[in-house]
Design goal:
The protein is α/β, with parallel strands linked by helices. It contains seven helices and ten strands. It has helices spanning about 10-20, 55-60, 80-95, 110-115, 120-125, 130-145, 185-195; strands at about 1-5, 25-30, 45-50, 65-70, 100-105, 150-155, 155-160, 170, 180-185, 205-209. The strands form three sheets. A six-stranded parallel beta sheet has the order 3-2-1-4-5-6, with helices on both faces. Strands 7-9 form a two-stranded parallel ribbon. The protein is globular.
Length: about 210
């Protein structure tokens, strides 16, 4: 499969790139700083660009089978209009020219799924994270209102732990752990499995231990 990954130089993006290449996929990494993906690979193509540039986003799409958005925020705990615009550019370009398949990385702390987790993510974290959560809601709205074959993935707090494969996924999974975590390696494993064997097209799966 030919995958275009936005946000490929971030912590989660790099894990997605690494595992996708291990699984035999061809990856196009759309990044602002190519130096963060220094390891060469015969099936890795790096495009330097900014998601705020609609023309650059559109130019990256030809010949791709699927798109993954692992875009982060410019400044933690702050509103980031550039990334919201970037998701809009991705959706509009895909609707105009394809491909149809989109995975968007969100957060389990958005209001729709917040009730499925423990007290910290349900009641405490939304206070300092209110602007980031509001941004995720805005981006989810853009994705959900599109005509694409989208999946919105909602993990809890992410760590740099190992890939275990021991996680639960689905739109109704729950935990009462006060502050659940998930490794980026397990998240990437789930996202790539969803691309290879779609089970949540136009769905919003959560991933929890």
């Amino acid at each position: 499969m030919k995958l275009l990954i936005f946000g490929a130089s971030g912590h989660t993006g790099r894990e997605l790139v690494r595992q996708a290449l291990e699984r035999g996929h061809s990856v196009t990494a759309f990044v602002r700083q190519p130096s963060k993906l220094a390891s060469p690979h015969p099936h890795l193509r790096i495009i330097q660009g900014d998601v705020g540039d609609a023309t650059a986003v559109r130019a990256a799409l030809p010949n791709q089978d699927a798109v993954v958005s692992a875009l982060g925020v410019g400044t933690p705990l702050k509103h980031d209009l550039t990334v919201i615009d970037g998701v809009r550019h991705i959706v509009q370009a895909m609707e105009a020219e394809g491909p149809r398949r989109l995975l968007y990385l969100s957060f389990i702390g958005v209001p729709e799924s917040r009730g499925s987790v423990g007290v910290v993510l349900r009641y405490i974290a939304p206070i300092p994270l209110r602007e980031e959560i509001a941004d995720h809601e805005a981006k989810e709205t853009l994705v959900r209102s599109s005509t694409l074959d989208w999946t919105i993935v909602r993990p809890p707090k992410l760590t740099n732990g190992p890939r275990t494969g021991k996680y639960r996924s689905g739109e109704n999974v729950r935990t009462w752990i006060p502050l659940p975590t998930l490794s980026r390696a397990d998240l990437a494993d789930f996202m790539l499995r969803e691309l290879e064997t779609p089970a949540h097209v136009r769905g919003t799966p959560r991933i929890l231990h």
